[in-house]
Structure formats: structure tokens, C-alpha cells
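Weekly sync, protein design subgroup
Attendees: M.S., D.O., the rotation student, P.L. (late)

Item 1: inverse folding check
M.S. brought a backbone from last month's batch and wanted to see whether the design step gives back something sensible before we order anything. D.O. pointed out we never logged the input encoding, so this time it goes straight into the notes. C-alpha cells as presented (520 positions):
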């Protein structure tokens, strides 16, 4: 049969049928394997990408969580922070216009009610009946009267001073005078043993602290044993001021330094005290510019101050605010008028950091209540006194009891010494008067006098005679004296010893009698 014969070959048919049957399973197996290969490739490419993306997002969430935690907890309970501030907005504060200030210097007895400012009942129970209390800054017309050297000498014992304390003050002022630079300024961070940390370097702050100590003893640029020292210091301070804004901080190119507004507020107090003590008209323009800058830097709503001119996006702290408020009261002593609304806002800030019915205080509004401290409580109660709280107001008395507890008794020993707290407690109790003040003053005065360094080298750079050691023994963890250094420590110790006559008590002798707080 030829190849062209169309008849079927019975032997080839089964063979063709067997091949077709055999290849079908093979195709299925090839298709399955192809699908698995594709899946493997997808897992290797897309799947791995998903895993990597998931890990990266998880890490990002952890980092953000840590940032939020740090932002919420920074500064809790610390009166003086010695680390750099987290960078914040700067442009928002540029080119701020100075606002006018006008109100009678000695505000009358009728308080301006702060709607949201409330205090609990006499029991101190925060859930008890509420009473409103007004803001009525006290009369400051005679606040510096006791600094007159003759008045001080004639009434030293009655005021609470002693010859030993006066000798310690004199030796401290002599040490400060030896540390003054030729152009009139002082430095915190160098020039003597145990200087402060460079991170809080501020020549304005150092100069202001030193001048406060000289002025507190009745020295001015016109009179007193150290008049030339004061004159040189005031000249430097006026020269460093920004003529446009009034800013006194010497490191303005590094806005946000922790010491910036401490330094400016202290410098403002210096200029205003010197003006109030001498009525020297040459000081008035610089003092007014400094006060304007301070007011323009206050939080527009909450009333606090921080390390730089503050905006609505920022929050103040009690430590800086206390110095700023004292500067505003000193401005009034110098005849520079300050608006009532600025004091009302500052009082609102104090409300935001109160704990336990306004009898205790913490660093910032977001600080945990458990971080309230005697140092900050004494500072806040002093502010309340100058803003018009009556002497026998119940929450004032609760606060006094807290800061004078046996655990807070002055002791120059490791972990106990806290000159920052003593500085404010002394002033607050001096206003209170009576047995609380006498007991405290005797204790802190004797402790500070005994701790003064009275011997040592007289060589430049090694001179310590008349100063106080900031590092031995180490102080309370929140004192930060080792960061401020020997000049910081010495100036504060002198100011503590000058408390009996540095300011007249806020309350008169008639205020010592029982009285009821103003309420509505």
C-alpha cells in the first residue's frame, strides 16, 4: 500500500492515542510548577518589600513615641535647666512690635477679679467650696527703704541680721569685686575654681547676679564702698543691650539658650533697682527698653515666660516666670508703669502650675503633680504675695507649712543643700514675718555663714576667699549649683544673707493680725 492510500492503519491509531493521553498530566504538572515559580518570585520581590515596609513603619512609630515622651517630660521639676532647649520656632518671634505700658504704679486696694482663678476652702480640700481671689499688686513705694546703710546699721538686729552675717556679706562682695573684668562684666564659666558649665554661659547673667548682690547691700554707682564696681558693671550692662528690642542677653545669636531670659530678667531688675535707688535719669531709657522687651515676650494668653520671646505655640515655666514677675514689680519701684492685664495673665499662669489647691507648685503646666517641689512652691507663693494674696490666706499658710517642714530645714550637706530654694523661701517667709520667719532666718543664716570659704590662695584664677563652694558637698539634685558655678553660688548666698533688708516686707505689722482673704 502506497503512502497515499487513505485507508487507516490499524497499528498507528493506538500509538497516537497513547501519546495524547500521556502528555495531558505533564502539561498540568508544568502549569502547576510555573504557578509556584511565579509565586516564589512574587514573594521574593513584592513580599519582601511588604516586610521591609512594615519594619520601617514600626521603627518610625517607636521614634515618634520617644519624641513625644521626651517633649512631655522635659524640665519636670527643674528650677534651673542646664541643657539646650529643643529647637522651636524662631521666625514667629522676629520683628515683634513693642507694646505700650501704662497703669498707676501703686495699684489701689480694689482687686481685679480673675474669672477662672479659684482656690479651695480653708481646709485645703481641692474639692471643697471655691472662692475667687483678685489680683492687686502691692504698694512698692517703700520697698527698698531698708537698704539705706544708716537704716540698716541702726536696725540690723531687729531686721534679722547679725555682725557675723554682715562680715560674710562684705567678704563675699570683696571676692566678687576681684572677679570683675576690666570692662565691667563678670563671667559664670571661667576665671576661678569650680566655674559653671559652658552650656549655660551668660555674661549678662553673671554680671546681673553680681550687681544684685552689691545693690542689695545698698551700694549704687553713686555711693557706697563698691560704687566704682557698680558703675563699671552698669556701664557694661547698658552697652550690651540691643537698642531696638531692649534685650539684655549677651548671646542673642544663640536664641533659646536656657540662661537667656534668666539673664534678661535679672538685668532688668538691676537697672530698675539702680534707677529706683538713685533716680538717675540716665538709667531710665535702658530700664524702660528692658521692661518693654520683657512684656513683649510674655505668653499672650497664659501669661508665662520661657527661654525666648514666647508665642501661643509655646508654654512658660515657673522658674523663669518668677524672675520676670519680680522684674515687673521692680519696674514699678522705679516709676515704670506696668499694665494690670500683664499681672492678671501672669497670675493665670501661676494657676496653671498649682497643685493641691494652690498651696504647692510645679515647673510647667504639663509637669506631673507629683513633681511639685518646695523650691518652686516658695517661688510661686512669693509671686502670689507681690500680686496681692493676703498674709493669712489659708492656701498661703498650707504652702508655708510645706516649705518649712523639717525635711526642708537648711543643711549644708550632701543632697540637702539647695540655695535656689533657700533664696525664695527666705524672701517669702520674710514677707510673712513672725515665728516662721525668725526660725527660718536664724537657721539658714547660720548655715550659710559657716559654709563660706575664708582662707585660700589670693592668686588670680585660684582665688576663693569669701566665696562659697558649689560642688563640695554636692547639693540637692535640683539645685544645679555645680552648673551655675562658684559665682552663681556666691551671689545667691549673699542675696540670702541680705534678705532681712533687701526689701521691705510686703505685709505691714497690722497685716500680722488675722484677716480674711478678699473674695466674691
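Designed sequence read out in the meeting:
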Amino acid at each position: 500500500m502506497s503512502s497515499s492510500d487513505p485507508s487507516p492503519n490499524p497499528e498507528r491509531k493506538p500509538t497516537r492515542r497513547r501519546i495524547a493521553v500521556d502528555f495531558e498530566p505533564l502539561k498540568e504538572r508544568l502549569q502547576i510548577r510555573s504557578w509556584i515559580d511565579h509565586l516564589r518570585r512574587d514573594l521574593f520581590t513584592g513580599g519582601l518589600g511588604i516586610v521591609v515596609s512594615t519594619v520601617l513603619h514600626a521603627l518610625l512609630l517607636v521614634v515618634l513615641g520617644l519624641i513625644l515622651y521626651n517633649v512631655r517630660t522635659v524640665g519636670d521639676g527643674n528650677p534651673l535647666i542646664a541643657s539646650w532647649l529643643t529647637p522651636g520656632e524662631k521666625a514667629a518671634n522676629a520683628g515683634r512690635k513693642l507694646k505700650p505700658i501704662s497703669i498707676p504704679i501703686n495699684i489701689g486696694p480694689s482687686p481685679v477679679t480673675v474669672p477662672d482663678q479659684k482656690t479651695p476652702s480653708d481646709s485645703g480640700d481641692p474639692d471643697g467650696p471655691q472662692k475667687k481671689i483678685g489680683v492687686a499688686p502691692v504698694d512698692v513705694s517703700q520697698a527698698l527703704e531698708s537698704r539705706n546703710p544708716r537704716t540698716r546699721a541702726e536696725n540690723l538686729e531687729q531686721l534679722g541680721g547679725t555682725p557675723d552675717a554682715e562680715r560674710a556679706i562684705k567678704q563675699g562682695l570683696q571676692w566678687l569685686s576681684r572677679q570683675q573684668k576690666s570692662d565691667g562684666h563678670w563671667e559664670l564659666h571661667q576665671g576661678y575654681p569650680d566655674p559653671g558649665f559652658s552650656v549655660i554661659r551668660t555674661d549678662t547673667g553673671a554680671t546681673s547676679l553680681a550687681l544684685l548682690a552689691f545693690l542689695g547691700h545698698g551700694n549704687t554707682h553713686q555711693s557706697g564702698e563698691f560704687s566704682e564696681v557698680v558703675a563699671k558693671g552698669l556701664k557694661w550692662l547698658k552697652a550690651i543691650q540691643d537698642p531696638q528690642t531692649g534685650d539684655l542677653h549677651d548671646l542673642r545669636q544663640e536664641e533659646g539658650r536656657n540662661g537667656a531670659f534668666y539673664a534678661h530678667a535679672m538685668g532688668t531688675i538691676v537697672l530698675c533697682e539702680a534707677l529706683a535707688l538713685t533716680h538717675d535719669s540716665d538709667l531710665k531709657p535702658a530700664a524702660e527698653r528692658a521692661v518693654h522687651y520683657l512684656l513683649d515676650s510674655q505668653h499672650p494668653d497664659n501669661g508665662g515666660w520661657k527661654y525666648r520671646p514666647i508665642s501661643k505655640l509655646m508654654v512658660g515655666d515657673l522658674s523663669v516666670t518668677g524672675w520676670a514677675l519680680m522684674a515687673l514689680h521692680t519696674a514699678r519701684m522705679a516709676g515704670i508703669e506696668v499694665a494690670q492685664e500683664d499681672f492678671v495673665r501672669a497670675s493665670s499662669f501661676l494657676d496653671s502650675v498649682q497643685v493641691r489647691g494652690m498651696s504647692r507648685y510645679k515647673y510647667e503646666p504639663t509637669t506631673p503633680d507629683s513633681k511639685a517641689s518646695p523650691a518652686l512652691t516658695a517661688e510661686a507663693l512669693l509671686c502670689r504675695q507681690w500680686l496681692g494674696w493676703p498674709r493669712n490666706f489659708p492656701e498661703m499658710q498650707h504652702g508655708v507649712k510645706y516649705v518649712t517642714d523639717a525635711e526642708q530645714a537648711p543643711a549644708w550637706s550632701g543632697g540637702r543643700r539647695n540655695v535656689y530654694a533657700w533664696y525664695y523661701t527666705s524672701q517669702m517667709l520674710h514677707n510673712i514675718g513672725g515665728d516662721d520667719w525668725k526660725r527660718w532666718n536664724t537657721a539658714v543664716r547660720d548655715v550659710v555663714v559657716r559654709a563660706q570659704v575664708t582662707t585660700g590662695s589670693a592668686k588670680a584664677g585660684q582665688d576663693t576667699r569669701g566665696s562659697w563652694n558649689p560642688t563640695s558637698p554636692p547639693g540637692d539634685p535640683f539645685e544645679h549649683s555645680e552648673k551655675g558655678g562658684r559665682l552663681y553660688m556666691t551671689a545667691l548666698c549673699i542675696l540670702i544673707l541680705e534678705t532681712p533688708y533687701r526689701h521691705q516686707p510686703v505685709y505691714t505689722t497690722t497685716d500680722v493680725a488675722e484677716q480674711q482673704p478678699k473674695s466674691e
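Discussion: Confidence is low (pLDDT under 50) at residues 1-23, 67-130, 513-520. The beta strands are 112-119, 131-135, 354-355, 360-361.
Action: P.L. to compare against the previous round before Friday.
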